[in-house]
Amino acid sequence: QGQLVESGGGRVQPGGSLRLTCAATGNIFSEYIMGWYRQAPGKQRELVASVTPRGIANFAAFVRGRFTSSRVNAENTMSLQMNNLGISDTATYYCNRSPVPTLPWGPGTQVIVSA
């Protein structure tokens, strides 16, 4: 079974930007809708975005217009460009299949938005 590894997180000020990357190993990626999820401290994990194998992306209302996502199936990678970040975007971000996250969770990458 393949693995998922997220990277690119960090600390930014409100209004800043970050670009996250999801890298998958094994034959677990290219044929599936992939999603970005996040989990804020004390809250349940939530779906942020889904990207079809053809690269069509859909976003949760709370990030729509600020986040974009793309994927390169040949490289088993997916990115999440996050702009105009707010304090409420502080969370650990994960990738997995969507809408049902059936793969083992990766370590996630932490995003902290703070003044």
Can you give keywords for this protein?
115 residues; mainly beta; six-stranded mixed sheet; four-stranded antiparallel sheet; 10 strands
Give a structural overview.
- With 115 residues, the protein is an all-beta fold.
- It has no helices and ten strands.
- It has strands at 4-7, 10-12, 18-24, 34-39, 46-51, 57-59, 67-72, 77-82, 91-97, 109-113.
- The strands form two sheets. The protein has a six-stranded mixed sheet with strand order 2-10-9-4-5-6, with no helix packed on it.
- The chain is globular and about 40 Å long.
- The mean pLDDT is 95.
Can you tell me the residue ranges where pLDDT is under 50 for at least 5 consecutive residues? none
What Rg do the Cα atoms give?
13 Å
**Helical stretch count?**
0
**What's the overall geometry?**
globular
Mean pLDDT: 95
Major sheet: size, sense and barrel closure? Answer: 6 strands, mixed
Give the terminus-to-terminus CA distance.
Answer: 40 Å
Please trace the helix and strand order, writing H or E for each element: EEEEEEEEEE
What's the arrangement of strands in the largest beta sheet?
Answer: 2-10-9-4-5-6
Number of β-strand runs: 10
Helix share, percent: under 10%
How much of the sequence lies in strands comes to over 45%
Helices and strands: which structural class? mainly beta
